[in-house]
Specification:
Elements lengths: L4 H8 L12 E4 L14 E6 L5 H11 L3 E6 L2 H10 L4 E2 L3 H9 L22 H10 L11 H4 L1 E13 L5 H7 L17 E4 L2 H10 L10 H17 L4 E3 L3 H4 L7 E5 H10 L12 E4 L11 E8 L6 H10 L3 H11 L6 H8 L16 H4 L14 H16 L2
Parallel strand pairs: 2-3, 2-4, 6-7, 6-8
Antiparallel strand pairs: 1-3, 4-10, 5-8, 5-9, 5-10
Length: about 400
Amino acid sequence: YSSAASDVYKRQEGNNMKKRNLLFLALPILSLLPTTSCATYSLVVFNWGEYIDMDRVRQFEDEHNCRINYITADSNENLLSKLDTTYFDICFPSEYAIEELAKKDMIRPIDYSRIPNLNIEEDLVPSLKSALDNLKQDTLGKEGFDLLKYAIPYTWGLIGLLYDTTKISPEEIEADGWEALRKTKNADGTDRKVVMYDTARDVLSVALVAQGKDFVEVSDEDLELGVNWLKGQTKTINTLAYKTEEILDDMPNKKYDICFTYIGDAIYSMTSVLDDEGENDYEHYAFYIPESIGPTRSDIYVDAMCMAKNSKNEELAYEFLNFMNEHDVLYDNSIYTGYTSPIQTIYDEITSEYSEYEEGPGSFYDVADTYRIVATDKDRFYRYDPELKTKLEEAWIDVKFDL
């Protein structure tokens, strides 16, 4: 993987570097390598689309003389449904889905002694480690969940607002907060074009947070408030759209003025948008997480690597997990995806003022403020709650019926 910043941009250009952005698609990776006798050692890996540096996957296959069947998903819900009926060795679910898999006894506890590249107690970004430790504690009368017992963090981040600075000023976005998603006009009088990432749990969480409500312990009354907030948006914003992978094309092409999205998508859009001369226009977009008016600011999401309880390739699976925690692999995957690394050394290296990405196209230095994440006591992890999950899905159907 080239260390030249211009190569990073070329590598990123045309990639939909976002989890949750493809329908399930089985992709045998080793199509160009010689056929070997390694079939009995192959791994089945479920991940999000374009969420890993495939050169590193091929490197692993070469080093271990094996094949990886790489399968992608567009949402945690689809991932969970698929895993119910499909064999896998490794998967990359998000926090609440990890808890669901653990409760269903589908994933095994991680034996960290078999992952020498990682010291789980010392290597994580402290604010992330603190948030994960808090998750183990009893919350709101619910038994805590030890995510690190079953999963190794791969990326983490927050949800927020990516906005066009030529249409919306920083002062305006700070004043409006989440309500900026329901404002009909821009300052120049044009209709505001709004796009929302199409995911029930995240969108409904924003509707709750915008009204000062929590999104972990949700009452029926709270959920009704969230639904009405979103329905108000659909009635007032004529250009409102709910999309997934299309956002990675639409935002760099300046199709929308404001987007509710994940921080990794925001970084991709900020480093991909071009000016009229075809040069990177880093200042065209900015990313903002509104201040809280209630108990919760925003969701911290964590995507992490888990091993299937019934994996038939345990030894190779641990080799894969260890490989994924090598310094250069961690670094390349973070650069490739645009998502924040959970490992402090990688986090520091990418955001450092002395980083090799300080200047040039595709520079992460230029979006370092976006890449940096500081967890606070008002950030919350989602929890697995079967009853709430059903209610959220039903509420989402209700909202989208009004589109």
